[in-house]
Amino acid sequence: MRVGDNPNKFSENNIQHYAHQVIIPVYIPNEEGYFKDSFAIFRLCMQSLLATTHSDTYITIVNNGSGKKVADYLNGLAEENKIQELIHTTNIGKINAVLKGIVGVHADIVTVSDQDILFKENWQSATFEVFNSFENVGVVGIIPMFNTFKSYSYNTIFDYLFSSKLKFSEVKNPDDMVKFYDSIWIERNYHQFFLKKHLSLCSSNRVVAVIGSGHVVASYRKSVFNSLEFSYAKDLLSGNSDGAFLDLPPLKLGYYRLTTQDNYAYHMGNSYEEWMTNQVKFDIIKPSQVCLDKSIYKEKHKFYLGISYYLKYFFIKKVVFNKVIFKLFLKLKGLDQEFIKTF
């Protein structure tokens, strides 16, 4: 029997709005084999995140079927109010865990991160600077990588194909770029040119961003997740699910996919190294709040977006990236002849 009225029934208080939400799915079933160092690395991930985020950040951790030791650690963070939301579930996969975390939170920007990311100082302000400097940005990464302009960047290349704002520029932090590829077990036999130049876009206020972005950590406009075609991913972890839920939706909405010019995070992988601990600065002064300039992007009609998506995809993928025309494109964007052959 219910007696009386729930005190929230007639409440006029609105759900709190946050400038930024960070979601990290965590799957560490044990500390053996592949996962031997994973818990130590995840703790560094959390320590760096907590040290570098401002107070208007909603941190969601999804315990995706981890062992008791990890669950107890996360429960401790929640009890100490260091994180705003903790979800315990069985292993439902990365994307499904992310979808659980997105629901019910009112935020402008959502960062999706792997559990082995070491966040650097000022990563939040650098991320929002890119969002607020380019009209159509929907995705912003913080780890520059090789050749990301070749994937899911058709909107940007189409819109700036003949603009001097789109051109090859100097890699700002080649040493950190090397560290990223070391972390994913890529031998250093790649062409050294990739450590010197990458395709970038310059805004009217002189902010430079790299074209394209990877998946290990990236921030999305919340609207990207408001029109997903599917409610769940069918696999635990794959490029197919990343493509369907994280790559294609921004592209179909007409958004640009960019990365900060400098490196603002490290991908640690699953093997602990001493330098990782040395990178975490516990005495970082909490950054000031940053917010999204909502006047930068104007929503477009769905019919227009549908036609635009297929037009841009076909023209860039099938015409500009054609073997012969692609070389002309590289030259148009300021690449020296000696480097064009590396593509």
In short:
The protein is α/β, with parallel strands linked by helices and 343 residues long.
Give a structural overview.
By secondary structure, the protein is α/β, with parallel strands linked by helices. It has a single domain, classed as Alpha-Beta Complex (Spore Coat Polysaccharide Biosynthesis Protein SpsA, Chain A). The chain has helices spanning about 40-50, 70-80, 95-100, 125-130, 155-160, 175-185, 240-250, 275-280, 300-320, 325-330, 335-340; strands at about 15-25, 55-65, 85-90, 105-115, 115-120, 135-140, 165-170, 195-200, 210, 215-220, 255-260, 265. It has a ten-stranded mixed sheet, sandwiched between helices. It is globular and about 70 Å long. The N and C termini lie far apart (about 70 Å).
Biggest sheet layout:
10 strands, mixed
Show unreliable segments. none
Structural class: alpha/beta
Proportion of β residues? Answer: 15-25%
Which series of helices and strands comes N to C?
EHEHEHEEHEHEHEEEHEEHHHH
Helical proportion?
Answer: 25-40%
Q: Could you say what the CATH architecture is? A: Alpha-Beta Complex
CATH class bucket: Alpha Beta
Strands side by side in the biggest sheet? 3-2-1-4-10-6-11-9-8-7
- How many domains make up the 3D coordinates? 1
